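Quick one, tokens below. Sequence please?
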């Protein structure tokens, strides 16, 4: 998905301080950012927090964005960093027993899927989330996560193999 002229113009305007242009960009990418954060964090409140923090940081740092065409990968990278930070902070503090949130956005992820995704490394989970759940291609994911396309394909293949192995006992 290449950036359209309209999206490029919105990034240009937002870089110059146009809050309406930034709001339109936010509206365009929010659903994918949230879906990514939700799969990564498996908690609706944390996903919302991660996206909110990422969007605030993106807005603050937008004037420093060098290439307007990199906006999408740039904001996804900020969101991934926020997710990692939230996970790190949560694991340091510890979540009280019984507080884990089992229900995720209706029809989107079930506890069984959450259990399956736990067998994946963080990088594998990010790639699977962006590829399978959000429909991005390897080249797009490579830009978002600042990885080589071959690395993305390798992570995806390894992750899918792990998921198949994890599902095998349930299938027999």
């Amino acid at each position: 998905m290449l950036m359209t002229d309209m999206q490029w113009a919105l990034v240009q305007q937002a870089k110059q301080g146009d809050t309406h242009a930034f709001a339109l960009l936010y509206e365009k990418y929010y659903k994918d950012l949230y879906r990514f954060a939700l799969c990564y964090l498996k908690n609706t409140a944390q996903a919302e927090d991660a996206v909110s923090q990422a969007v605030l940081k993106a807005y603050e740092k937008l004037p420093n964005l060098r290439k307007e065409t990199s906006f999408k990968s740039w904001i996804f990278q900020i969101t991934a960093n926020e997710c990692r930070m939230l996970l790190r902070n949560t694991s340091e503090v510890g979540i009280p027993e019984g507080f884990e949130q089992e229900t995720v956005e209706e029809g989107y992820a079930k506890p069984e899927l959450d259990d399956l995704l736990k067998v994946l490394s963080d990088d594998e989970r990010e790639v699977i989330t962006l590829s399978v759940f959000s429909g991005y291609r390897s080249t797009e994911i490579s830009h978002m996560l600042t990885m080589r396309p071959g690395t993305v394909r390798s992570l995806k293949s390894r992750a899918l193999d792990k998921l198949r192995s994890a599902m095998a006992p349930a299938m027999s």
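The two ends are 39 Å apart (CA to CA). The CA atoms of residues 102 and 111 lie 6 Å apart.
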